[in-house]
Protein backbone atom coordinates (compact mmCIF):
# COMPACT_ATOMS: atom_id res chain seq x y z
CA UNK A 1 0.00 0.00 0.00
CA UNK A 2 1.39 3.41 -0.98
CA UNK A 3 0.56 6.61 0.85
CA UNK A 4 1.36 9.86 -0.97
CA UNK A 5 1.61 12.64 1.59
CA UNK A 6 3.04 16.08 0.93
CA UNK A 7 4.73 17.01 4.22
CA UNK A 8 6.97 15.46 6.85
CA UNK A 9 4.61 16.39 9.65
CA UNK A 10 1.71 14.73 7.84
CA UNK A 11 3.76 11.56 7.32
CA UNK A 12 4.56 11.32 11.03
CA UNK A 13 0.93 12.07 11.99
CA UNK A 14 -0.23 9.30 9.60
CA UNK A 15 2.23 6.78 11.06
CA UNK A 16 1.14 7.67 14.60
CA UNK A 17 -2.51 7.19 13.60
CA UNK A 18 -1.87 3.92 11.74
CA UNK A 19 0.15 2.49 14.62
CA UNK A 20 -2.31 3.75 17.26
CA UNK A 21 0.43 5.60 19.14
CA UNK A 22 -0.48 8.50 21.42
CA UNK A 23 1.60 11.64 21.01
CA UNK A 24 2.49 11.49 24.72
CA UNK A 25 3.88 7.97 24.19
CA UNK A 26 5.94 9.09 21.20
CA UNK A 27 7.24 12.02 23.23
CA UNK A 28 8.20 9.66 26.07
CA UNK A 29 10.00 7.36 23.61
CA UNK A 30 11.93 10.31 22.15
CA UNK A 31 12.82 11.55 25.63
CA UNK A 32 14.06 8.08 26.59
CA UNK A 33 16.43 8.30 23.61
CA UNK A 34 17.78 11.61 24.90
CA UNK A 35 15.73 13.89 22.64
CA UNK A 36 14.70 16.61 25.08
CA UNK A 37 11.34 17.64 23.61
CA UNK A 38 8.02 18.42 25.22
CA UNK A 39 4.73 17.06 23.93
CA UNK A 40 3.41 20.53 23.05
CA UNK A 41 6.55 21.39 21.07
CA UNK A 42 6.35 18.10 19.16
CA UNK A 43 2.67 18.68 18.44
CA UNK A 44 3.41 22.18 17.10
CA UNK A 45 6.25 20.91 14.92
CA UNK A 46 4.00 18.23 13.43
CA UNK A 47 1.07 20.60 12.83
CA UNK A 48 3.20 23.43 11.42
CA UNK A 49 5.43 21.03 9.47
CA UNK A 50 8.62 22.54 10.86
CA UNK A 51 10.58 19.33 11.40
CA UNK A 52 14.19 19.35 10.27
CA UNK A 53 15.37 16.35 8.29
CA UNK A 54 17.29 15.13 11.35
CA UNK A 55 14.20 15.49 13.54
CA UNK A 56 12.06 13.68 10.96
CA UNK A 57 14.58 10.84 10.75
CA UNK A 58 14.93 10.64 14.53
CA UNK A 59 11.14 10.46 14.98
CA UNK A 60 10.82 7.88 12.19
CA UNK A 61 13.49 5.83 13.94
CA UNK A 62 11.56 6.06 17.22
CA UNK A 63 8.46 4.84 15.33
CA UNK A 64 10.46 1.87 13.95
CA UNK A 65 10.38 3.27 10.40
CA UNK A 66 13.06 3.82 7.76
CA UNK A 67 13.53 6.96 5.67
CA UNK A 68 14.33 6.07 2.05
CA UNK A 69 14.58 7.70 -1.34
CA UNK A 70 14.08 5.50 -4.40
CA UNK A 71 15.54 6.54 -7.73
CA UNK A 72 12.83 6.62 -10.40
CA UNK A 73 15.06 5.52 -13.28
CA UNK A 74 17.07 2.66 -11.80
CA UNK A 75 15.11 1.94 -8.60
CA UNK A 76 18.20 2.22 -6.39
CA UNK A 77 17.16 2.69 -2.76
CA UNK A 78 19.02 5.29 -0.72
CA UNK A 79 18.43 4.95 3.02
CA UNK A 80 18.81 7.86 5.39
CA UNK A 81 20.16 6.86 8.77
CA UNK A 82 20.01 9.14 11.77
CA UNK A 83 22.90 9.54 14.15
CA UNK A 84 20.62 9.64 17.20
CA UNK A 85 23.31 10.91 19.56
CA UNK A 86 24.37 13.73 17.22
CA UNK A 87 20.78 14.73 16.36
CA UNK A 88 19.63 14.83 19.98
CA UNK A 89 22.72 16.79 21.06
CA UNK A 90 22.15 19.36 18.31
CA UNK A 91 18.44 19.71 19.14
CA UNK A 92 19.05 19.94 22.88
CA UNK A 93 21.75 22.62 22.38
CA UNK A 94 19.45 24.63 20.10
CA UNK A 95 16.57 24.33 22.59
CA UNK A 96 18.83 25.48 25.42
CA UNK A 97 19.97 28.53 23.41
CA UNK A 98 16.37 29.42 22.50
CA UNK A 99 15.35 29.16 26.17
CA UNK A 100 18.25 31.45 27.16
CA UNK A 101 17.18 34.01 24.54
CA UNK A 102 13.60 33.82 25.77
CA UNK A 103 14.71 34.31 29.38
CA UNK A 104 16.90 37.29 28.37
CA UNK A 105 13.95 38.89 26.58
CA UNK A 106 11.72 38.43 29.62
CA UNK A 107 14.40 39.90 31.88
CA UNK A 108 14.94 42.90 29.56
CA UNK A 109 11.20 43.47 29.32
CA UNK A 110 10.87 43.52 33.13
CA UNK A 111 13.73 46.02 33.45
CA UNK A 112 12.01 48.49 31.11
Task: Please describe the topology of this protein.
Blueprint: H1 8-18, H2 23-32, H3 39-48, H4 53-62, E1 67-70, E2 77-80, H5 84-111
Antiparallel strand pairs: 1-2
Helix pairs in contact: 1-3
Number of domains: 1
Strand content range: 5-15%
- The low-confidence runs, each spanning 5 or more residues with pLDDT under 50, are none
Biggest sheet, spatial arrangement of strands: 1-2
Look at the helices and sheets and give the structural class.
mainly alpha
Per DSSP, the total helix count is: 5
Report the count of strand segments: 2
Sheet having the most strands: 2 strands, antiparallel
- Secondary-structure element order, N to C: HHHHEEH
- The radius of gyration over CA amounts to 17 Å
- Overall average residue pLDDT: 80
Q: What gap, in angstroms, lies between the N and C termini?
A: 59 Å
From the spread of the alpha carbons, the general shape counts as: globular
Helix content: 55-70%
